[in-house]
From TrEMBL:
One GO biological process term: leucyl-tRNA aminoacylation
Keyword Hydrolase in record: no
Family note: Belongs to the class-I aminoacyl-tRNA synthetase family.
Entire protein: shown range: 296 to 562 of 1127
GO MF, one annotated term: leucine-tRNA ligase activity
Record keywords, A-Z: Aminoacyl-tRNA synthetase, ATP-binding, Ligase, Nucleotide-binding, Protein biosynthesis
Recorded superkingdom: Eukaryota
Record bears the keyword Zinc-finger: no
Protein name: leucine--tRNA ligase
Amino acid sequence: QEYTALKLQVKEWSPKMAEAIKGKIEDDAKVYFVPATLRPETMYGQTNCFVGPKIKYGLFKLKEKEYVVVTKRAAWNMAFQGHFFGSESFPKSQDQLPMVYEAPGSDFVGTLINAPLSFHTEGVYILPMESVSAAKGTGVVTSVPSDSPDDYATLMDLQKKADYYGIKKEWASKEIHPLIDTPTYGNLTAPTLVKQLKINSPKDVTQLAQAKDLAYTEGFYKGTMLVGEFKGEAVSAAKDKVRKSLYDSGDAFPFADPMGKVVSRSG
Ligand code: ZZB
């Protein structure tokens, strides 16, 4: 399954990480969180980025002064796909990956990152999401609450229980802009579906799976872009153009997940 892997550069580390990586990477190094997405056309609406609080993530060195934060499993896949890691240093096993630090997702929460194409040019925050799968994509998930029911339900929960989750409420309260107009669900597909299917929390997994399917289908076949370079075009036409533009600008690269859940999705 081919994902678009986006590069979200760290602007300011969470206090825990700032302390932990002192002396482990160059002061002027660039570090990117790398979420894998099937919906590049929604990147305008990124409001935050999710990690699994209990999942382990590594900082992997790509080249001088450049690192990515992903699961070890994803770094291993990236190595095979030749995006990174010069061939002279090709790892023979996962233990040979150039990992400089490893920490659970919870340590990264509160880190401020730059999300390419997002309205929120001031940056967005790393937040925890229990349902992130370590066995899919990169283990990092960029969040688009206007068009992803899972993201919307999780954000509402984080806002309600900010103290419980150990986050600042503002981190989960970035404005949600309409991106895609659809005949059935209007221009905020995910919030509409969450309401219609009476989803009250991220634990309503059955309804959330149903909402995700409905949102994918409606968005792809009937959606029209309301924003961005391809405003006014059908989502089915804009998707590949946004993806290409992200590849051309160097903000993203293709990433295949050979072992990921095998489902065929349009686009
Ligand atoms: C941004 C986005 C915007 C996404 C949207 C979806 C939607 P699939 O079909 O099951 O492969 N995702 C990626 N990796 C993980 C992970 N490890 N654990 C949990 N979720 C993950 O799902 C691919 C989508 O699931 C990806 O695309 C990502 O969220 C998330 F408007 O990225 B998406 C209706 C969905 N809308």
